[in-house]
Specification:
CATH class of the largest domain: Mainly Beta
GO biological process, one term: signal peptide processing
Oligomer: single chain
Protein name: LexA repressor
EC number: 3.4.21.88
Radius of gyration: 23 Å
InterPro entries: LexA/Signal_pep-like_sf, Pept_S26A_signal_pept_1_Ser-AS, Peptidase_S26
Distance between the termini: 68 Å
GO molecular function: serine-type endopeptidase activity
Largest sheet: 7 strands, antiparallel
CATH superfamily of the largest domain: Umud Fragment, subunit A
Length: 197
């Protein structure tokens, strides 16, 4: 009978070397990642930097959600030698909820929202009439509007400020009115939750 004795470090590396637990904390402005795993033979700093950068980028990506975030984190962990990966995503909105910060551009939501105001949204497609939502718009990058009506898969975006605004654009005085229109509900990015950040 042969008895093989491994040092505790070698035993840990053998038993748990491919297991990682990745915990992410998001608040819309900051993202932090904590990795629990055995770093033997792995580029631990590279892994942590890559996970943190990816998480921050995805938090601010209008097309990402917790599922796409988790998929990307698993791919990064696998690239660094972790095959058995468990991921948690937490935010001020709860488990598996992703926040994102947006900046109000314009005066169409005055007096509720001011131009330049920072707002934290909860990325979700679920909203109800009266919510302030952020949507992707083909003509603009993002719109922040009140959900005025729902008809099937269409939603009506309304403005809180219906006054005509007199302003100067490229040296020419113009009258501007708020955008109000119908769009597909699939364009919803999220619901505004925290204001004047």
């Amino acid at each position: 009978m042969i008895l093989l004795v491994l040092g505790s470090n070698a035993l840990l590396a053998t038993a748990f070397g491919n297991v990682a637990i990745i915990n992410t904390e998001l608040d819309g402005q900051n993202a932090s990642v904590n990795v629990i795993g055995v770093p033997f033979g792995k580029d631990w700093n590279g892994l942590n930097n890559e996970l943190n950068n990816y998480t921050a980028t995805q938090m601010n990506n209008v097309d990402s959600n917790t599922s796409t975030l988790k998929e990307g984190l698993k791919k990064i962990a696998k690239k660094h030698g972790f095959d058995d990966v468990t991921i948690t995503v937490s935010s001020q909105f709860g488990e598996n909820q992703m926040p994102m910060e947006v900046v109000v551009d314009g005066v169409s939501m005055v007096p509720t929202l001011q131009n330049g105001e920072h707002v934290i949204i909860q990325k979700t497609k679920t909203s109800k009439v009266g919510d302030i939502i952020v949507v992707k718009d083909p003509e603009k990058t993002l719109l922040i509007k009140r959900l005025g009506n729902i008809s099937g898969d269409q939603i009506f975006l309304s403005s809180d400020n219906n006054d005509t605004v007199h302003t100067v654009v490229n040296g020419v005085e113009v009258d501007m009115i708020a955008i109000e229109k119908w769009t597909n509900a699939s364009n919803i990015i999220g619901v505004a939750k925290i204001f004047n950040v």
